[in-house]
Amino acid sequence: MIEIRNVAKWYGGVVALSGLTATIGRGLSSLLGPNGAGKSSLIRILCGLTSPSQGSVRVMGKDPRTSREIRKDIGLVPQQERLPPGVNALEFVAMAASLQGLPDPAGAARKAIETVELDPNDRRHLSSYSKGMRQRVKIAQAIVHGPRVLILDEPLNGLDPRQRSRMAQLFIQLGSEDRCVLVSSHVLEEVQELSSTVLVLAEGKLAAEGDFHAIRQLLDDRPHRIRLRSTDPLRLASGLMGSGTVSAVQTAGDNAIVIDTWTVSPFRRRLPRLTQELGVRLLEVAPLDDDLESVFRYLVARRSP
Amino acid sequence: MISLYRILLRISVTRGRLLAFLAGGALLDLIAYAVRVSDYANRETDVYQLLDLAALALYVPVVALVFSTSSLGDLAQDGTLVYVWLRPVARWKVVLVALASTLTVVLPMTLGPVWLAIALAGASWQAFWAITASTTMAACAYTAVFTAFGLRVRHALIFGLGYVLIWETGVASLGKGPAALSIRHYAESLLAHLGNQTVPGAIEADLWPAVIVLAAVTLAGATLTTILLSRQDVA
Hints:
The complex is a heterodimer. By secondary structure, chain A is of the alpha/beta class. Chain A has ten helices and 13 strands. In chain A, strand 1 (2-11) and strand 2 form a beta hairpin. In chain A, helix 3 (105-115) crosses helix 4 (131-143) and helix 8 (233-243) crosses helix 9 (264-278). By secondary structure, chain B is mostly helical. Chain B has one domain (2-231). Chain B has helices at residues 2-12, 15-38, 43-78, 82-85, 91-121, 125-152, 156-168, 176-180, 183-195, 207-231. The longest helix of chain B is centred in the N-terminal third of the chain and has 36 residues, at 43-78. The chains are: A alpha/beta, B mainly alpha. The A-B interface holds A 44, 47-51, 68-69, 71-72, 74, 76, 78, 80, 82-87, 91-92, 94-96, 98-101, 105, 141 and B 1-4, 6-7, 10-11, 75, 78-80, 82-90, 233-235.
Protein backbone atom coordinates (compact mmCIF):
# COMPACT_ATOMS: atom_id res chain seq x y z
CA MET A 1 0.00 0.00 0.00
CA ILE A 2 2.97 2.32 0.63
CA GLU A 3 6.00 2.30 -1.62
CA ILE A 4 9.09 4.27 -0.65
CA ARG A 5 11.78 4.49 -3.31
CA ASN A 6 15.23 5.86 -2.62
CA VAL A 7 13.81 8.68 -0.52
CA ALA A 8 16.12 11.31 0.93
CA LYS A 9 15.23 14.45 2.81
CA TRP A 10 17.56 17.18 3.89
CA TYR A 11 16.99 20.52 5.58
CA GLY A 12 19.83 22.84 4.58
CA GLY A 13 22.92 20.86 5.47
CA VAL A 14 21.14 18.43 7.80
CA VAL A 15 20.27 15.05 6.33
CA ALA A 16 17.09 13.63 7.88
CA LEU A 17 16.62 10.67 5.54
CA SER A 18 19.07 9.05 3.18
CA GLY A 19 18.36 6.61 0.35
CA LEU A 20 15.41 4.93 2.03
CA THR A 21 13.63 2.16 0.12
CA ALA A 22 10.84 0.08 1.66
CA THR A 23 7.37 -1.29 1.04
CA ILE A 24 4.70 -1.26 3.70
CA GLY A 25 1.73 -3.53 3.11
CA ARG A 26 -1.62 -4.16 4.77
CA GLY A 27 -1.68 -4.88 8.47
CA LEU A 28 0.16 -3.38 11.39
CA SER A 29 3.73 -2.17 10.95
CA SER A 30 5.97 -0.31 13.36
CA LEU A 31 8.59 2.30 12.64
CA LEU A 32 11.19 1.98 15.36
CA GLY A 33 14.09 4.34 15.89
CA PRO A 34 15.65 6.71 18.39
CA ASN A 35 14.68 10.38 18.53
CA GLY A 36 16.15 12.19 15.54
CA ALA A 37 16.30 9.04 13.41
CA GLY A 38 14.06 10.58 10.74
CA LYS A 39 10.75 8.90 11.68
CA SER A 40 8.70 12.10 11.72
CA SER A 41 10.28 13.31 8.48
CA LEU A 42 9.37 10.02 6.82
CA ILE A 43 5.83 10.20 8.17
CA ARG A 44 5.42 13.77 6.89
CA ILE A 45 6.58 12.63 3.45
CA LEU A 46 4.22 9.63 3.50
CA CYS A 47 1.29 11.96 4.22
CA GLY A 48 2.38 14.53 1.61
CA LEU A 49 2.96 17.23 4.23
CA THR A 50 6.39 17.81 2.70
CA SER A 51 8.15 16.69 -0.47
CA PRO A 52 11.14 14.35 -0.44
CA SER A 53 14.36 16.06 -1.54
CA GLN A 54 15.04 12.97 -3.64
CA GLY A 55 13.18 9.78 -4.55
CA SER A 56 9.46 9.12 -4.56
CA VAL A 57 6.64 7.88 -2.39
CA ARG A 58 3.39 6.27 -3.54
CA VAL A 59 0.46 5.64 -1.25
CA MET A 60 -2.04 3.28 -2.89
CA GLY A 61 -0.33 4.16 -6.17
CA LYS A 62 -0.71 7.93 -5.79
CA ASP A 63 1.61 10.77 -4.87
CA PRO A 64 0.40 11.96 -1.45
CA ARG A 65 1.84 15.45 -1.98
CA THR A 66 -0.25 16.22 -5.06
CA SER A 67 -3.24 13.88 -4.99
CA ARG A 68 -6.32 15.26 -3.24
CA GLU A 69 -8.09 11.90 -3.71
CA ILE A 70 -5.60 10.01 -1.57
CA ARG A 71 -6.30 12.28 1.40
CA LYS A 72 -9.69 10.58 1.71
CA ASP A 73 -7.81 7.38 2.54
CA ILE A 74 -5.14 8.73 4.91
CA GLY A 75 -5.50 9.29 8.64
CA LEU A 76 -2.64 10.84 10.61
CA VAL A 77 -1.90 11.25 14.28
CA PRO A 78 0.85 13.89 14.23
CA GLN A 79 3.52 14.02 16.91
CA GLN A 80 2.92 17.59 18.07
CA GLU A 81 0.59 17.87 21.05
CA ARG A 82 -1.00 21.19 20.22
CA LEU A 83 -4.70 21.20 19.31
CA PRO A 84 -6.85 24.19 18.31
CA PRO A 85 -7.78 26.33 21.33
CA GLY A 86 -11.36 27.15 22.28
CA VAL A 87 -12.98 23.98 20.93
CA ASN A 88 -14.15 20.74 22.54
CA ALA A 89 -13.44 17.20 21.38
CA LEU A 90 -16.75 16.74 19.55
CA GLU A 91 -16.39 20.00 17.60
CA PHE A 92 -12.80 19.20 16.66
CA VAL A 93 -13.45 15.63 15.51
CA ALA A 94 -16.69 16.70 13.77
CA MET A 95 -14.67 19.30 11.84
CA ALA A 96 -12.36 16.50 10.67
CA ALA A 97 -15.38 14.39 9.66
CA SER A 98 -16.98 17.32 7.86
CA LEU A 99 -13.80 18.14 5.91
CA GLN A 100 -13.56 14.46 4.95
CA GLY A 101 -17.00 14.86 3.40
CA LEU A 102 -18.84 12.40 5.69
CA PRO A 103 -22.66 12.66 5.50
CA ASP A 104 -23.16 12.75 9.29
CA PRO A 105 -20.07 14.44 10.78
CA ALA A 106 -21.43 14.70 14.32
CA GLY A 107 -22.51 11.04 14.41
CA ALA A 108 -19.17 9.85 13.02
CA ALA A 109 -17.32 12.08 15.51
CA ARG A 110 -19.29 10.66 18.47
CA LYS A 111 -18.48 7.11 17.37
CA ALA A 112 -14.75 7.86 16.93
CA ILE A 113 -14.56 9.60 20.32
CA GLU A 114 -16.23 6.64 22.00
CA THR A 115 -13.81 4.28 20.23
CA VAL A 116 -10.91 5.99 22.00
CA GLU A 117 -12.82 5.76 25.29
CA LEU A 118 -13.60 9.45 25.73
CA ASP A 119 -16.98 11.05 26.40
CA PRO A 120 -18.43 12.83 23.33
CA ASN A 121 -20.69 14.85 25.63
CA ASP A 122 -17.73 16.36 27.48
CA ARG A 123 -18.01 20.07 26.65
CA ARG A 124 -14.68 21.09 28.15
CA HIS A 125 -12.19 22.74 25.82
CA LEU A 126 -9.32 20.58 24.60
CA SER A 127 -6.85 22.87 26.37
CA SER A 128 -8.16 21.55 29.71
CA TYR A 129 -7.59 17.90 28.72
CA SER A 130 -4.69 15.86 30.07
CA LYS A 131 -1.90 14.85 27.71
CA GLY A 132 -3.31 11.32 27.44
CA MET A 133 -6.81 12.61 26.63
CA ARG A 134 -5.46 14.97 23.95
CA GLN A 135 -3.54 12.07 22.47
CA ARG A 136 -6.76 10.05 22.24
CA VAL A 137 -8.59 12.99 20.62
CA LYS A 138 -5.83 13.04 18.00
CA ILE A 139 -6.41 9.34 17.39
CA ALA A 140 -10.19 9.94 17.11
CA GLN A 141 -9.76 12.62 14.42
CA ALA A 142 -7.46 10.28 12.49
CA ILE A 143 -9.87 7.31 12.47
CA VAL A 144 -13.16 9.21 12.13
CA HIS A 145 -13.38 8.60 8.37
CA GLY A 146 -12.18 4.97 8.46
CA PRO A 147 -8.98 5.58 6.45
CA ARG A 148 -7.35 2.71 4.59
CA VAL A 149 -3.92 4.04 5.52
CA LEU A 150 -3.51 5.09 9.14
CA ILE A 151 -0.22 6.65 10.22
CA LEU A 152 0.45 7.33 13.88
CA ASP A 153 3.52 9.27 15.02
CA GLU A 154 4.39 8.23 18.59
CA PRO A 155 0.68 7.74 19.46
CA LEU A 156 1.33 6.07 22.82
CA ASN A 157 3.26 9.04 24.25
CA GLY A 158 1.57 10.45 27.33
CA LEU A 159 -0.76 7.51 27.90
CA ASP A 160 -0.81 5.65 31.19
CA PRO A 161 -0.08 1.87 31.07
CA ARG A 162 -3.77 0.92 30.96
CA GLN A 163 -4.61 3.38 28.15
CA ARG A 164 -1.44 2.35 26.36
CA SER A 165 -2.51 -1.26 26.38
CA ARG A 166 -6.08 -0.40 25.23
CA MET A 167 -4.81 1.79 22.40
CA ALA A 168 -2.30 -0.88 21.35
CA GLN A 169 -5.22 -3.33 21.14
CA LEU A 170 -7.12 -0.78 19.03
CA PHE A 171 -4.18 -0.45 16.61
CA ILE A 172 -3.92 -4.24 16.36
CA GLN A 173 -7.64 -4.44 15.62
CA LEU A 174 -7.45 -1.64 13.00
CA GLY A 175 -4.48 -3.38 11.40
CA SER A 176 -6.48 -6.59 11.08
CA GLU A 177 -9.24 -4.81 9.11
CA ASP A 178 -7.65 -4.78 5.65
CA ARG A 179 -5.87 -1.50 6.11
CA CYS A 180 -2.29 -0.34 6.51
CA VAL A 181 -1.50 0.90 10.01
CA LEU A 182 1.95 2.36 10.64
CA VAL A 183 2.89 3.20 14.22
CA SER A 184 6.14 4.99 15.02
CA SER A 185 7.90 4.65 18.35
CA HIS A 186 11.30 5.01 19.95
CA VAL A 187 10.45 2.50 22.66
CA LEU A 188 11.22 -1.16 21.94
CA GLU A 189 8.67 -2.41 24.49
CA GLU A 190 5.84 -0.54 22.73
CA VAL A 191 6.70 -2.22 19.46
CA GLN A 192 6.90 -5.56 21.25
CA GLU A 193 3.33 -5.06 22.50
CA LEU A 194 2.12 -4.46 18.94
CA SER A 195 3.86 -7.66 17.72
CA SER A 196 4.03 -6.21 14.24
CA THR A 197 6.32 -6.02 11.25
CA VAL A 198 9.09 -3.64 12.24
CA LEU A 199 11.12 -1.15 10.23
CA VAL A 200 14.11 0.09 12.19
CA LEU A 201 15.21 3.59 11.24
CA ALA A 202 18.47 5.05 12.49
CA GLU A 203 20.44 8.07 11.33
CA GLY A 204 17.99 8.52 8.45
CA LYS A 205 18.60 5.05 7.08
CA LEU A 206 16.67 1.81 7.17
CA ALA A 207 18.76 -0.20 9.64
CA ALA A 208 16.69 -3.39 9.64
CA GLU A 209 13.26 -4.74 8.81
CA GLY A 210 11.33 -7.89 9.60
CA ASP A 211 8.99 -9.28 12.21
CA PHE A 212 9.56 -8.31 15.81
CA HIS A 213 11.28 -11.57 16.79
CA ALA A 214 13.80 -11.28 13.96
CA ILE A 215 14.55 -7.70 15.01
CA ARG A 216 14.87 -8.72 18.66
CA GLN A 217 17.33 -11.43 17.59
CA LEU A 218 19.33 -8.86 15.64
CA LEU A 219 19.45 -6.57 18.64
CA ASP A 220 20.80 -9.38 20.85
CA ASP A 221 23.15 -10.81 18.26
CA ARG A 222 25.83 -8.15 18.51
CA PRO A 223 28.95 -7.52 20.58
CA HIS A 224 28.11 -6.46 24.11
CA ARG A 225 30.44 -4.51 26.35
CA ILE A 226 30.08 -5.08 30.08
CA ARG A 227 31.92 -3.58 33.05
CA LEU A 228 32.59 -5.98 35.94
CA ARG A 229 33.83 -4.83 39.34
CA SER A 230 35.07 -7.54 41.68
CA THR A 231 37.37 -8.26 44.63
CA ASP A 232 40.03 -9.77 42.29
CA PRO A 233 39.72 -8.37 38.73
CA LEU A 234 42.89 -10.00 37.33
CA ARG A 235 41.88 -13.48 38.49
CA LEU A 236 38.37 -12.91 37.06
CA ALA A 237 39.82 -11.68 33.73
CA SER A 238 41.98 -14.74 33.36
CA GLY A 239 39.10 -17.05 34.26
CA LEU A 240 36.78 -15.36 31.73
CA MET A 241 39.34 -15.61 28.90
CA GLY A 242 39.62 -19.34 29.62
CA SER A 243 35.81 -19.79 29.65
CA GLY A 244 35.45 -19.00 25.92
CA THR A 245 32.50 -16.64 26.46
CA VAL A 246 34.39 -13.36 26.02
CA SER A 247 36.32 -12.04 23.04
CA ALA A 248 38.35 -9.33 24.81
CA VAL A 249 39.15 -8.16 28.33
CA GLN A 250 40.75 -4.94 29.50
CA THR A 251 41.37 -3.48 32.94
CA ALA A 252 39.50 -0.32 33.83
CA GLY A 253 40.84 0.66 37.28
CA ASP A 254 38.92 0.70 40.55
CA ASN A 255 38.94 -3.13 40.68
CA ALA A 256 37.05 -3.20 37.38
CA ILE A 257 37.49 -4.91 34.02
CA VAL A 258 35.59 -4.33 30.77
CA ILE A 259 34.78 -7.39 28.67
CA ASP A 260 33.48 -7.77 25.09
CA THR A 261 31.23 -10.74 24.31
CA TRP A 262 29.27 -11.91 21.28
CA THR A 263 27.39 -14.53 23.26
CA VAL A 264 25.71 -12.52 25.96
CA SER A 265 23.29 -15.20 27.16
CA PRO A 266 25.90 -17.98 27.68
CA PHE A 267 28.16 -15.37 29.30
CA ARG A 268 25.44 -14.41 31.78
CA ARG A 269 24.81 -18.07 32.63
CA ARG A 270 28.52 -18.85 33.06
CA LEU A 271 29.50 -15.77 35.11
CA PRO A 272 28.00 -16.69 38.54
CA ARG A 273 29.42 -20.23 38.42
CA LEU A 274 32.83 -18.97 37.36
CA THR A 275 33.09 -16.39 40.15
CA GLN A 276 32.12 -19.09 42.63
CA GLU A 277 34.78 -21.46 41.26
CA LEU A 278 37.44 -18.71 41.35
CA GLY A 279 36.44 -17.52 44.83
CA VAL A 280 35.97 -13.97 43.54
CA ARG A 281 33.20 -11.73 44.86
CA LEU A 282 31.36 -9.83 42.14
CA LEU A 283 30.61 -6.22 43.20
CA GLU A 284 29.01 -4.77 40.06
CA VAL A 285 27.84 -5.81 36.58
CA ALA A 286 27.08 -2.85 34.31
CA PRO A 287 26.23 -3.09 30.58
CA LEU A 288 27.95 -0.18 28.80
CA ASP A 289 26.12 -0.17 25.47
CA ASP A 290 22.61 -1.42 26.16
CA ASP A 291 20.83 1.84 25.42
CA LEU A 292 18.70 1.66 22.30
CA GLU A 293 20.61 4.37 20.48
CA SER A 294 23.88 2.47 20.59
CA VAL A 295 22.03 -0.62 19.38
CA PHE A 296 20.61 1.34 16.45
CA ARG A 297 24.05 2.77 15.66
CA TYR A 298 25.40 -0.76 15.57
CA LEU A 299 22.65 -1.89 13.18
CA VAL A 300 23.36 1.01 10.80
CA ALA A 301 27.11 0.30 10.82
CA ARG A 302 26.42 -3.39 10.25
CA ARG A 303 24.18 -2.69 7.23
CA SER A 304 26.54 -0.15 5.60
CA PRO A 305 28.80 -1.60 2.89
CA MET B 1 -16.90 23.82 5.85
CA ILE B 2 -19.17 25.51 8.38
CA SER B 3 -17.34 23.72 11.20
CA LEU B 4 -13.99 24.97 9.90
CA TYR B 5 -15.44 28.50 9.66
CA ARG B 6 -16.63 28.30 13.28
CA ILE B 7 -13.32 26.97 14.56
CA LEU B 8 -11.25 29.57 12.67
CA LEU B 9 -13.51 32.27 14.04
CA ARG B 10 -13.14 31.00 17.58
CA ILE B 11 -9.35 30.78 17.26
CA SER B 12 -8.93 34.36 16.03
CA VAL B 13 -11.45 36.10 18.30
CA THR B 14 -9.94 36.43 21.75
CA ARG B 15 -11.13 38.67 24.57
CA GLY B 16 -7.84 40.61 24.57
CA ARG B 17 -8.06 41.44 20.87
CA LEU B 18 -11.71 42.47 21.11
CA LEU B 19 -11.06 44.75 24.08
CA ALA B 20 -8.00 46.32 22.45
CA PHE B 21 -9.86 47.16 19.27
CA LEU B 22 -12.98 48.34 21.07
CA ALA B 23 -10.72 50.77 22.93
CA GLY B 24 -9.12 51.86 19.63
CA GLY B 25 -12.55 52.35 18.06
CA ALA B 26 -13.73 54.33 21.08
CA LEU B 27 -10.74 56.65 20.72
CA LEU B 28 -11.66 57.26 17.05
CA ASP B 29 -15.23 58.10 18.08
CA LEU B 30 -14.02 60.42 20.81
CA ILE B 31 -11.93 62.37 18.30
CA ALA B 32 -14.92 62.50 15.90
CA TYR B 33 -17.06 64.01 18.64
CA ALA B 34 -14.29 66.49 19.43
CA VAL B 35 -14.31 67.54 15.76
CA ARG B 36 -18.02 68.31 15.96
CA VAL B 37 -17.80 70.46 19.08
CA SER B 38 -14.59 72.26 18.15
CA ASP B 39 -15.13 73.20 14.50
CA TYR B 40 -18.81 72.80 13.57
CA ALA B 41 -18.59 74.85 10.37
CA ASN B 42 -15.86 72.70 8.74
CA ARG B 43 -16.86 69.44 10.36
CA GLU B 44 -17.56 67.59 7.08
CA THR B 45 -14.03 68.24 5.75
CA ASP B 46 -12.49 67.50 9.14
CA VAL B 47 -14.39 64.22 9.42
CA TYR B 48 -13.13 63.08 6.00
CA GLN B 49 -9.58 63.90 7.04
CA LEU B 50 -10.04 62.04 10.32
CA LEU B 51 -11.51 58.99 8.58
CA ASP B 52 -8.63 58.97 6.11
CA LEU B 53 -5.83 59.44 8.63
CA ALA B 54 -7.17 57.46 11.58
CA ALA B 55 -9.49 54.86 10.04
CA LEU B 56 -8.27 54.03 6.52
CA ALA B 57 -4.56 54.59 7.17
CA LEU B 58 -4.31 53.03 10.64
CA TYR B 59 -7.33 51.44 12.31
CA VAL B 60 -8.62 49.35 9.37
CA PRO B 61 -5.21 47.91 8.35
CA VAL B 62 -4.22 47.15 11.95
CA VAL B 63 -7.50 45.35 12.71
CA ALA B 64 -7.21 43.41 9.43
CA LEU B 65 -3.56 42.62 10.15
CA VAL B 66 -4.18 41.19 13.62
CA PHE B 67 -7.11 38.96 12.64
CA SER B 68 -5.81 37.93 9.19
CA THR B 69 -2.32 36.87 10.23
CA SER B 70 -3.80 34.82 13.04
CA SER B 71 -6.22 32.75 10.95
CA LEU B 72 -4.14 30.39 8.78
CA GLY B 73 -0.85 31.87 9.99
CA ASP B 74 -1.34 30.83 13.60
CA LEU B 75 -2.35 27.33 12.52
CA ALA B 76 0.82 27.05 10.45
CA GLN B 77 2.99 28.34 13.30
CA ASP B 78 1.62 26.09 16.03
CA GLY B 79 1.39 22.95 13.89
CA THR B 80 -2.40 22.60 13.90
CA LEU B 81 -2.65 23.39 10.17
CA VAL B 82 -2.10 19.66 9.59
CA TYR B 83 -5.68 18.98 10.75
CA VAL B 84 -7.01 21.12 7.90
CA TRP B 85 -4.34 20.56 5.27
CA LEU B 86 -4.57 16.75 5.25
CA ARG B 87 -8.21 16.70 4.17
CA PRO B 88 -9.58 16.17 0.66
CA VAL B 89 -10.73 19.78 0.34
CA ALA B 90 -9.68 22.17 -2.43
CA ARG B 91 -7.20 24.72 -1.09
CA TRP B 92 -9.14 27.65 -2.50
CA LYS B 93 -12.16 26.60 -0.43
CA VAL B 94 -10.05 26.59 2.74
CA VAL B 95 -8.75 30.06 1.87
CA LEU B 96 -12.26 31.31 1.15
CA VAL B 97 -13.46 30.02 4.52
CA ALA B 98 -10.46 31.63 6.26
CA LEU B 99 -11.15 34.98 4.56
CA ALA B 100 -14.87 34.76 5.37
CA SER B 101 -14.21 34.02 9.04
CA THR B 102 -11.69 36.87 9.27
CA LEU B 103 -14.01 39.36 7.57
CA THR B 104 -16.81 38.29 9.90
CA VAL B 105 -14.78 39.92 12.67
CA VAL B 106 -12.92 42.63 10.77
CA LEU B 107 -15.94 44.27 9.10
CA PRO B 108 -18.01 44.84 12.25
CA MET B 109 -14.86 45.80 14.18
CA THR B 110 -14.02 48.50 11.62
CA LEU B 111 -17.43 49.61 10.34
CA GLY B 112 -18.94 49.91 13.83
CA PRO B 113 -16.58 52.60 15.16
CA VAL B 114 -16.52 54.35 11.77
CA TRP B 115 -20.33 54.59 11.60
CA LEU B 116 -20.43 55.82 15.17
CA ALA B 117 -17.77 58.40 14.32
CA ILE B 118 -19.92 59.68 11.43
CA ALA B 119 -22.95 59.93 13.73
CA LEU B 120 -21.03 61.63 16.54
CA ALA B 121 -19.45 64.13 14.18
CA GLY B 122 -22.85 64.88 12.63
CA ALA B 123 -21.57 64.18 9.11
CA SER B 124 -23.82 63.61 6.05
CA TRP B 125 -25.40 60.39 4.70
CA GLN B 126 -23.10 60.70 1.72
CA ALA B 127 -20.13 60.50 4.07
CA PHE B 128 -21.73 57.43 5.65
CA TRP B 129 -22.01 55.58 2.31
CA ALA B 130 -18.57 56.73 1.19
CA ILE B 131 -16.81 55.51 4.32
CA THR B 132 -18.82 52.27 4.33
CA ALA B 133 -17.74 51.42 0.78
CA SER B 134 -14.12 52.48 1.21
CA THR B 135 -13.71 50.73 4.58
CA THR B 136 -15.28 47.52 3.27
CA MET B 137 -13.10 47.40 0.16
CA ALA B 138 -9.96 48.33 2.08
CA ALA B 139 -10.73 45.72 4.76
CA CYS B 140 -11.17 43.02 2.10
CA ALA B 141 -7.91 43.96 0.37
CA TYR B 142 -5.90 44.14 3.61
CA THR B 143 -7.42 40.87 4.86
CA ALA B 144 -6.49 38.98 1.69
CA VAL B 145 -2.94 40.36 1.62
CA PHE B 146 -2.29 39.85 5.33
CA THR B 147 -3.68 36.28 5.29
CA ALA B 148 -1.06 35.37 2.68
CA PHE B 149 1.55 37.30 4.64
CA GLY B 150 0.69 35.41 7.86
CA LEU B 151 1.02 32.06 6.12
CA ARG B 152 4.44 32.86 4.68
CA VAL B 153 6.21 35.08 7.22
CA ARG B 154 7.21 34.31 10.80
CA HIS B 155 6.35 37.12 13.22
CA ALA B 156 3.98 38.47 10.55
CA LEU B 157 2.28 40.73 13.08
CA ILE B 158 5.48 42.66 13.81
CA PHE B 159 6.52 43.00 10.18
CA GLY B 160 2.93 43.84 9.20
CA LEU B 161 2.79 46.61 11.77
CA GLY B 162 6.04 47.94 10.37
CA TYR B 163 4.50 47.91 6.89
CA VAL B 164 1.34 49.73 8.03
CA LEU B 165 3.16 52.36 10.07
CA ILE B 166 6.06 52.98 7.71
CA TRP B 167 4.51 52.45 4.28
CA GLU B 168 0.75 52.96 4.46
CA THR B 169 0.75 55.90 6.88
CA GLY B 170 4.16 57.35 6.02
CA VAL B 171 5.93 56.75 2.72
CA ALA B 172 2.69 56.39 0.70
CA SER B 173 1.82 60.04 1.47
CA LEU B 174 5.05 61.37 -0.04
CA GLY B 175 4.11 61.28 -3.72
CA LYS B 176 2.18 59.60 -6.54
CA GLY B 177 4.79 56.86 -7.04
CA PRO B 178 4.67 55.32 -3.55
CA ALA B 179 0.94 56.10 -3.28
CA ALA B 180 0.27 53.89 -6.31
CA LEU B 181 1.62 50.95 -4.28
CA SER B 182 -0.54 51.62 -1.25
CA ILE B 183 -3.97 50.12 -0.51
CA ARG B 184 -4.82 53.16 1.57
CA HIS B 185 -4.33 55.44 -1.45
CA TYR B 186 -7.10 53.68 -3.41
CA ALA B 187 -9.36 53.49 -0.36
CA GLU B 188 -9.06 57.23 0.32
CA SER B 189 -9.67 57.93 -3.39
CA LEU B 190 -12.88 55.92 -3.13
CA LEU B 191 -13.85 57.87 -0.02
CA ALA B 192 -13.23 61.20 -1.75
CA HIS B 193 -15.10 60.31 -4.97
CA LEU B 194 -18.13 58.69 -3.34
CA GLY B 195 -18.31 61.45 -0.75
CA ASN B 196 -17.79 64.09 -3.42
CA GLN B 197 -15.41 65.77 -1.01
CA THR B 198 -11.75 66.65 -1.14
CA VAL B 199 -9.77 64.76 1.47
CA PRO B 200 -7.03 67.11 2.72
CA GLY B 201 -3.56 65.68 2.04
CA ALA B 202 -4.84 62.76 -0.06
CA ILE B 203 -3.29 61.85 -3.40
CA GLU B 204 -6.35 60.85 -5.38
CA ALA B 205 -6.77 58.20 -8.07
CA ASP B 206 -9.84 58.06 -10.33
CA LEU B 207 -12.93 56.27 -9.01
CA TRP B 208 -13.01 53.16 -11.20
CA PRO B 209 -9.28 52.47 -11.18
CA ALA B 210 -9.48 52.67 -7.36
CA VAL B 211 -12.35 50.16 -7.26
CA ILE B 212 -10.66 47.83 -9.74
CA VAL B 213 -7.29 47.95 -7.95
CA LEU B 214 -8.86 47.20 -4.53
CA ALA B 215 -10.82 44.29 -5.99
CA ALA B 216 -7.73 43.04 -7.84
CA VAL B 217 -5.59 43.22 -4.70
CA THR B 218 -8.22 41.18 -2.83
CA LEU B 219 -8.29 38.57 -5.58
CA ALA B 220 -4.48 38.50 -5.85
CA GLY B 221 -4.13 38.09 -2.07
CA ALA B 222 -6.62 35.21 -2.06
CA THR B 223 -4.90 33.55 -5.02
CA LEU B 224 -1.47 33.96 -3.46
CA THR B 225 -2.75 32.47 -0.19
CA THR B 226 -4.12 29.47 -2.12
CA ILE B 227 -0.78 28.93 -3.87
CA LEU B 228 1.17 29.28 -0.62
CA LEU B 229 -1.17 26.88 1.15
CA SER B 230 -0.79 24.29 -1.63
CA ARG B 231 3.00 24.51 -1.44
CA GLN B 232 3.15 24.78 2.33
CA ASP B 233 5.53 22.47 4.20
CA VAL B 234 3.26 21.41 7.03
CA ALA B 235 4.83 20.64 10.39
